[in-house]
Structures are given as structure tokens and as C-alpha cells.
Amino acid sequence: MGDNRIERLQTGDLELGATEAVQRHVTRTVVQPAPVTQRKLDFEHSRPRWLRECMAEATGVFFYAITICFWLWQGFPAKKVPYYIFSQIFGAFVAGLILMGQYHQQISEFKAATEAAGLPVVSPSGPAGILCAFPLPTQTNQGYLFMIEFFVDSFIGIVIWSCLDPANPFVSPQSAPFTIGLAYGVMVWGFADVTISTNLARDLGTRIVAAIFFGGEAFSYDNGYAWISILVNVPATIFATGYYEFLMRDSLKKIGAGHAVHEHGEEGLSRHLSRRGILEDGPSVVKTKSQGDY
């Protein structure tokens, strides 16, 4: 009787034998991709560049205030800023229309029930509140609403900017989406019940849809609260990113990590390090991330 103990079965040899049998008797055919036609190349070349920038590039940045801060602090091309902002607002507008189409029956019933009860359609608890933010009836002080929005947008802005800093040792590219999402979550959990917007692109696009279906009061509600939700996130985000740039940014470490260069190249960087006493023996190779910190 044979020995069936696992260490005597020589499973490695069996697996190798099976592999050889498969390689000998089974033929795999790899389907080659279809060739690129000249017609396709001509079509792609004829597409307007602005269309590609709006549809392909801007979809990666949903926060239009961050787009402005990229231009202000990071040298983002100014001519692309309007394209990006338009794309972000238009994307929210289309999303609002899709939502109204998908749930037209339910929203229509909700609107009819609201009107039958003598309640306003444009309100935080009305059907227009599905699309955009409206302050509560007790929130009559717009200065209070301004401060809430400014704090929330500043907090989100500084978290986003710190996650985008390649010299930040506490956040990796893999964890950045979760960190930013957590920041949004904390602000929503803490302040959504007292009215926040956080993003013009999301607010303005859907507010236009609300005005189409429920009337212009979507913009005039509560003495024009809409302009707080639309505009405050711009100065708040500029304030947050400016705070980070002036007080927390470490450009030398960013250069050392290989994510930026000195405006005058290696010579300019060496002069700076020498003047600051970091290079004692004259010009030398700048340390990289793997060689240690400065």
C-alpha cells in the first residue's frame, strides 16, 4: 500500500507535470487589437482642443475653487481655468437633469403633496431641496450662514491642499482619496443640518435645474442665500491654500523628492543651499528622498 502522507506526494512535481501537459496539448490564441484607421486619427485630430480639455481633463477636478488655486499657486494655465469651471458647472447641471428624469414620477408626487399641504416647494424640506441647499426657516442671520460656509470650505481646502503636497509625509497618493473623503464626511456630519454647500460647481448647476422646475425662488430664497453657497467657497479655499503655502509648504523637500526643480536649475539650488549653510563644501548633488532629509 502506498504512502499517502502529504510530504511524500511530491506535489511540486505533479504541478510541474500538469503544467507541461497543458503547454504541450493546449494552444492559446491571443486576439490582436484592431488596427487604428486613418479615419479615426483624422477625426481625433479635428476635435477642438477645448472640447478635450472640458470633457477629458476637467472631469478630474470637480471643485472649481481648487482649479483657481492651481492657477494661483501652482502655475496652472490661466486659459484652461474657464474651460474647467464651465465643465464642472455643466456636469452638475446635467446630473441634476438626469436625477429629475430618473425620479420624475416620485418628485412630481412630492411636489403635488407639498402644494396640497400649503407648504413652499422651494425650501429645505421641499422638492427643490433635493437639488441644492436652502437654509432652515430659523436661519435668518446670513452672517452666521457665511461663517459656517467659510469654515467648512476652509477646512476642506486645507485638507485637499495638504493631500496634494508630495512632500507631505503623512499622506500617500493611495490614501489621499480616503483622507479627502473623510474630511468631506466630517463636515457633512457636523454641519449639513445647518446648511452648507462646499462647492459652486455642485451648487450652481443643480440650482439652475431647481429654478427650471420649481421657479426662480431657487436663487432668491432667504434674501439671496444662493450667493453665499455659490461664491463663499472661492475666498475660503484661497484662504486655506494660502495659509498652507505661506506657513506649511516645504518646497526644498519637494525639490529633494524629485517633484519640482529650482527656477534656475541645479546651479540656482546650489547657491541657495550654500547661502543657507546647508552646503558647507560648495556645490554638490542634492539629496533625494532616498538619501534622507535636509
Summarize the structure.
The chain has 294 residues and is mainly α. It has helices at residues 11-25, 38-46, 49-57, 64-74, 81-102, 104-116, 142-163, 176-191, 200-214, 217-224, 226-231, 233-247, 251-256, 265-275.
Could you state the order of secondary-structure elements as H and E?
Answer: HHHHHHHHHHHHHH
Rg is 28 Å
Biggest sheet architecture: none
Give a count of the beta strands, DSSP E runs of length 2 or more: 0
Structural category: mainly alpha
Mean pLDDT: 81
Shape: extended
**Distance between the ends:** 71 Å
Return residue spans where pLDDT drops below 50 for at least 5 consecutive residues.
6-11, 281-294
* Proportion in β-strands: under 5%
**Number of helices, where a helix is a run of at least 4 consecutive DSSP H or I residues:** 14
Helix content: 55-70%
Q: Mind explaining what this structure looks like?
A:
- The chain is an all-alpha fold.
- The protein contains 14 helices and no strands.
- Helix 3 packs across helix 5 (81-102).
- The chain is extended, with a radius of gyration of 28 Å.
